[in-house]
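Hi P.,

Sorry for the delay on this. The queue was packed all week, but I finally got your sequence through. Input first:
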Amino acid sequence: MSLFTSLSVAASGMAAQRQRAELLVENMANAETTRTPDGGPYRRKDAVFETATQGSAFASEFQIQMDAPGTGVRVSEITVDQSDPEKRYLPGHPDADKDGYVSFPHINPAEDMVDLMTANRNHQADVAAMSAVKDMIQKSISLLS
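Then the structure:
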């Protein structure tokens, strides 16, 4: 794998973790949302990752054929929680049903915070990998000078 392909692999991980972090923040921000424009409570969203072949714009066709391309990651889909909402007895709430129950989303802020910390750590690891590759490229250039 070329150094430029390594950069592409790390960049794909950074993009996927950024999208995952955005969904987690959206979930936490809407943990108490009982009414959405679609009607009903907010529905939790999750990112589903899949492997994706990464190449380099600088790789020659021969190198692409001889080397196995780098395998990165991408978000293949965003799932929406379809389970029944959590019911809480709040008879004075404007969104309460005739029995006084309000539908809330199935969101655990502690779990989402841990997932957000994990996404942050994965993003940091990708940044460190890109930094290491950048250093290798700079040293290669200085050796050729």
